[in-house]
Design a protein that fits this description.
With about 230 residues, this protein is α/β, with parallel strands linked by helices. It has 8 helices and 12 strands.
């Protein structure tokens, strides 16, 4: 089944080029020219991934990303942010608002397509025989179906949050350094810093509620997952 990609940018020429190239790759493409139009398009038909400019009229890309992450129905949609700015703080803010990747303009279109494919591959359905699940106290994690529940109540995580949890639970009790987590989770690590990991951990703990304390901080080193006794 072909994936749906929502392109959001106020640059009409760039939209046209990206739409053409993505359609040649076999994707279905939706387009919007500002943040508000993007949210309306997502309500009309939820995409499999959003590729969105940061600097736009009528709600910028970071505001849209924050809005998507705040609602259960849209919180897990992968988001790639595009921007002409190359400031470190902008990259950090984009990732802290919940973006899964961040690409600085001008960019190589082929590289952007490879990043889109990489994210969609990670969010695709796993074969049934590959099903893996974990249960720790009140926490249940189904890796193949990307499902998380606390006290049998479903928890909505973003792709990045789910990957972070998956890497922590695969070795209970083992300390994972920040550098290792950065390498495992962000395949394109430029502009991703320890502060970003800490922010995602805080958000993940908050969403996991009673299971949040299972993620323990090891000061000066990183984090480990360990069920409380």
């Amino acid at each position: 089944m072909n994936k749906n990609i929502l392109l959001v940018d106020d640059d009409q020429d760039l939209l046209a080029v990206l739409e053409l190239k993505l359609k040649k790759e076999g994707y279905h493409v939706q387009v919007a020219r500002n943040g508000k139009a993007a949210l309306e398009e997502i309500q009309r038909k939820q995409p499999d991934i959003v590729v969105m400019d940061v600097n736009m009229p009528s709600m910028d890309g970071m505001e849209v990303c924050k809005k998507l992450r705040s609602e259960d129905k849209t919180s897990a949609i992968p988001v790639i942010l595009l921007t002409a700015r190359d400031e470190e703080i902008d990259r950090i803010l984009g990732l802290e608002f919940g973006a899964d990747d961040y690409v600085t303009k001008p960019f190589n279109t082929r590289e952007l397509i490879l990043r889109i494919k990489s994210i969609l591959k990670r969010t695709g359905d796993a074969p049934a025989q590959a099903k893996e699940s974990y249960e720790f106290g009140c926490l249940k994690v189904d890796l193949s179906n990307h499902e998380v529940a606390v006290k049998n109540k479903p928890i909505q995580l973003t792709l990045t949050e789910f990957k972070l949890l998956s890497h922590l639970i695969d070795s209970p009790g083992k300390i994972k350094s920040r550098d290792l987590l950065l390498e495992q989770i962000w395949e394109y690590g430029d502009g991703v810093f320890s502060r970003t990991i800490d922010t995602h951990i805080q958000r993940l703990r908050s969403k996991l509620k009673e299971a949040g304390p299972y993620i323990q901080t090891v000061r000066g080193v990183g984090y480990r997952f360990q069920e409380l006794r």
